[in-house]
């Protein structure tokens, strides 16, 4: 196994772990007492996924590289809201939305990888510019937009 294959396996495993941990992390945002354990595990795995993504060979500003930059910015903002502002006032909304957006970015990449790697989906959108891919991404944006909106409306204030 080459180093690149090993990195791919580690990065993919971390991505799946972060995706799975994002579900209870987001669910906890709707509760009076945040589950800091789920959120911490999610944020650590999201950070690990983002960081390992930058270990791949740089071949220019690809969608994957830009997504990694956006993910890093969101995670930095989420960390500042959590630690720098102690989640007071609007910082708590930003923190909650950062968690939702981090999970969305993982789903965004998962949708793209699904269309690239799974033959059935690849046949529907081989260049990722066909309507099935666009529809899947629009559904993802809509679902996470609704979740984000509801998190802001219902997240208890500190």
Low-confidence stretches: none
Q: What structural class do helix, strand and pairing data support?
A: mainly alpha
| Euclidean distance between termini CA atoms | 49 Å
Radius of gyration, whole Å: 16 Å
The shape, in one word, is: globular
Query: How helical, in percent, are the residues?
Result: over 70%
Q: What is the residue-mean pLDDT, rounded to a whole number? A: 90
Q: Main β-sheet: number of strands, strand sense, barrel status?
A: none
Q: How would you spell out the order of helices and strands? A: HHHHHH
β-strand percent reads under 5%
H/I helix tally: 6
Q: Could you tell me the number of beta strands?
A: 0
Taken together, the total number of domains comes to 1
What does this structure look like?
The chain is mainly α and 158 residues long. The chain has one domain. The protein is 78% helix and 0% strand. The protein has six helices and no strands. α4 packs antiparallel against α6 (131-154). The protein is globular, with a radius of gyration of 16 Å. The model has no long low-confidence stretch (mean pLDDT 90).
